[in-house]
Amino acid sequence: MPGIVLRVPGVFETAFAGIRAELDVPLRFPADVLEEAERAVPDPTVERVDARHLPLIAIDPPGATDLDQAFTAERTSGGYRVFYAIADVGAFVTPGGSVDIEARRRGITLYSPDVRAPLHPPILSEDRTSLLPGRDKPALLWTIDLDAEGRPVDWHLTRAVVRVAEAISYRMAQDRIDGAVAEPGDVDENLVLLSTIGRLRQRREAERGGVSLNLPAQEIVRRDDGYVLAFDRPLPVEGWNAQISLLTGMVAGRTMTDAGVGILRTLPPADPADVEVLRRIAGVLGLDWPTDTDYATFVRSLQPTTAAHNAFLVQCTRLFKGAGYYGFSAGPPENVEHSAIASLYAHVTAPLRRLVDRFGNEILLSLLADADPPQWAVEALGELPSLMGKARQRESSLERALLDMAEVLTLENHIGDVFDSVVVDVAPPRNQATVQITEPAVVARLPIGSLDLAEQVKLRLTATDRQHRTVTFEPTADS
After folding, report:
1. Which of 153, 228, 344, 352 is the most exposed place for a label (fewest CB within 10 A)?
2. Coil vs helix vs strand at 124
3. pLDDT tens, 140-197?
4. 65 lies in a domain?
């Protein structure tokens, strides 16, 4: 039953507003915060490199106005040089001021399909600090030299003035890259280099034993005058673009760790017992996982295009448990890698949308200039992991509640209809199975019964409940 779109005016928006009120999502800023943001300007005495000649390109979702990053690169005699501009939020936020205190309370920008609750007032996040194209902007400019195989050999960070050449969507970027391959005479060098370097970095990720799960994400999409549930399948360019951010976060993490001061994004190693469970699941699904092939290599061989592969990749999320932040100031920490990235790693590339990045960037500016980090940033290192943990928890609760409500609103006029689904998880302790319906993109739970992983099941919708945000299905007799 493809293309179910709810077009009743205001129904989604009213429901979403109720969820935001329930979860205390802050949409408005206090007057003193707005007043301070209105007055905020960069310190004119701070030296900045003039980098307006760089042909930077920002790649973001359509309609985005809070642009954190912009990329360009060039070939060198030894490999490649990456230029990565990051919004200089720290130039506009006074430590201990009203904007800073409010940002600490929020922690992260929260997104709903109809509105967003930004980390900073819009005059900053969507105007003065955003790397909007065609305008001179203060920025933090990373310059990272790579060898011919895409390994970083040198890097530095400085405050700069940039002018982004253009901002495009991922779809547009992918089309241009594909066009450059099809018609080599019409080359968009910026995007060709993004593809080239992104692929090299993916190979280096494989060497390290890093893993990126290529799972479609359930999302609520605005379409004309309504909303539709869909599974978003990432484009290749999204992976290449992510590799530039990961590269930057990795050299940032190494710099802070070597200096013994900073804050890292961490993920503990997978429990060997969980890996063994995955091996047994692979066998149940009929997937050939050779005994001499490690987990990371096997996962990279799969694509979520078959029921068995998709079910297995969903199971792999059990290994991504315990992600957090680790702040330190008394010497290099031990055993603080991000296991999925298989490297030291820091969040520093999204300061408009993530609180922790601003502090990491200010510390890095000092470290890479052989200076002591600002005391206000160092003093915050003990508090930031807790602030970010609370913000991430609220983000997760909001995302799940919005999706649950969208499922109810999409399906409530389809009681009795039958949908095709596939089983992607079974949890015997809770006697519960998780199934995915492709059209519309619904994730449902029902008693396990005799259901098996990757089994295709026809489900009849029997009830919906707005108050509890639940949908109820039962397998049909011919399942």
Report:
1. 153
2. helix
3. 999 999 999 999 999 999 999 999 999 999 999 999 998 866 555 556 889 999 999 9
4. yes
